[in-house]
């Protein structure tokens, strides 16, 4: 019986060591995860112009301001895309009208009329006056 008690004590000690090592490993991994998360928040904060100089910004503030900034960038992108499309359309219209092409050729060459009325598309065509005046 005393021998059995010693074996059980050794097993208990080994389990305690295993548990202790598991806890230590878990704590190390958890600390690393928290450090990575903190680093990610700091990186995000540094990419939001409104927060660059705010070293004490709370995580929730960083998330809200980053979301606002992304939305403002998306709105700016949409605005620029519309301006680009308008510029391209004006360039196409002025270029084809100046080349003296026929209205049929002019319309066929347009990549997309973007919902513009036909008279708008034809106003730079050399046949414009013939059809509409």
From TrEMBL:
<dbReference type="InterPro" id="IPR002418">
    <property type="entry name" value="Tscrpt_reg_Myc"/>
</dbReference>
<keyword id="KW-0238">DNA-binding</keyword>
<feature type="compositionally biased region" description="Acidic residues">
    <location>
        <begin position="1"/>
        <end position="19"/>
    </location>
</feature>
<dbReference type="GO" id="GO:0003700">
    <property type="term" value="F:DNA-binding transcription factor activity"/>
</dbReference>
<dbReference type="GO" id="GO:0046983">
    <property type="term" value="F:protein dimerization activity"/>
</dbReference>
<dbReference type="GO" id="GO:0003677">
    <property type="term" value="F:DNA binding"/>
</dbReference>
<protein>
    <recommendedName>
        <fullName>BHLH domain-containing protein</fullName>
    </recommendedName>
</protein>
<feature type="domain" description="BHLH">
    <location>
        <begin position="21"/>
        <end position="73"/>
    </location>
</feature>
<feature type="region of interest" description="Disordered">
    <location>
        <begin position="1"/>
        <end position="25"/>
    </location>
</feature>
<keyword id="KW-0597">Phosphoprotein</keyword>
<dbReference type="InterPro" id="IPR050433">
    <property type="entry name" value="Myc_transcription_factors"/>
</dbReference>
<dbReference type="Pfam" id="PF00010">
    <property type="entry name" value="HLH"/>
</dbReference>
<dbReference type="InterPro" id="IPR011598">
    <property type="entry name" value="bHLH_dom"/>
</dbReference>
<dbReference type="InterPro" id="IPR036638">
    <property type="entry name" value="HLH_DNA-bd_sf"/>
</dbReference>
């Amino acid at each position: 019986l005393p021998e059995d008690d010693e074996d059980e004590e050794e097993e208990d000690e080994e389990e305690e060591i295993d548990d202790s090592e598991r806890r230590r490993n878990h704590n190390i991994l958890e600390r690393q995860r928290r450090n990575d998360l903190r680093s990610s928040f700091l990186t995000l904060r540094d990419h939001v112009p409104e927060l660059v100089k705010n070293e004490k910004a709370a995580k929730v503030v960083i998330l809200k301001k980053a979301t606002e900034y992304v939305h403002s960038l998306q709105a700016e992108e949409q605005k620029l895309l519309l301006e680009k499309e308008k510029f391209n359309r004006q360039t196409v219209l002025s270029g084809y009208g100046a080349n003296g092409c026929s209205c049929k050729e002019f319309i066929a060459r347009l990549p997309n009329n973007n919902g513009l009325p036909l008279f708008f598309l034809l106003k730079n065509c050399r046949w414009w006056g013939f059809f509409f005046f």
